[in-house]
UniProtKB/TrEMBL annotation:
InterPro entries reported for this sequence: MT1864/Rv1816-like_C, Tet_transcr_reg_TetR-rel_C_sf
Superkingdom, natural source: Bacteria
Signal peptide segment: none
Record flagged with keyword Transferase: no
Protein name as catalogued: WHG domain-containing protein
Origin species: Micromonospora globbae
Keywords: Transcription, Transcription regulation
Domain HTH-type transcriptional regulator MT1864/Rv1816-like C-terminal: 16-105
C-alpha cells in the first residue's frame, strides 16, 4: 500500500495535475505542442545524449509517479503513463476522440495509474 489515504489522495492529485497541465498546454499552444511532441526531431531520448532539460522534465514526471509504480520498472511505468496521456491528447486534437469526453478520459487514465498499486 502507498500509505495513508490522505497521502494517496495528495499524490493522486499531483498525477491529475500533470495530466490536466499536459492537456491544457496542448490546447493553449498547439503549434508548440506539435513541435515538441509530434514532429520528427533528431533528439535522443532515454540515453546519455538526452538534453538536460528533457531529462529533468522526465525525472520530475517519474518522481510524481513513483508512489504508484510498485515493483514495476519506474521508467517504464512513467513512459507508459506519458504514452497514454500523449495518445489521449493527440487523438482528441485530431478529432478521433470525442472532445466532450476528454476530461473523463484523463480522469480514467489517472485513476488507472493511481490505483495500480
Amino acid at each position: 500500500m502507498v500509505g495513508s489515504p490522505e497521502r494517496v489522495s495528495d499524490e493522486g492529485q499531483a498525477v491529475a495535475g500533470v495530466a490536466a497541465a499536459y492537456s491544457a498546454f496542448a490546447e493553449r499552444r498547439p503549434a508548440l505542442y506539435d513541435a515538441m511532441f509530434t514532429l520528427n526531431v533528431d533528439l535522443r531520448f532515454a540515453s546519455q545524449e538526452t538534453p538536460v532539460d528533457l531529462a529533468r522534465g522526465f525525472a520530475e514526471l517519474t518522481e510524481t509517479l513513483r508512489p504508484f509504480a510498485g515493483d514495476d520498472d519506474l521508467e517504464t511505468f512513467t513512459e507508459t503513463f506519458w504514452a497514454g496521456l500523449h495518445g489521449l491528447v493527440t487523438l482528441m486534437r485530431s478529432g478521433r476522440l470525442r472532445r466532450a469526453e476528454q476530461q473523463r478520459r484523463l480522469a480514467l487514465l489517472v485513476d488507472l495509474v493511481c490505483r495500480a498499486r
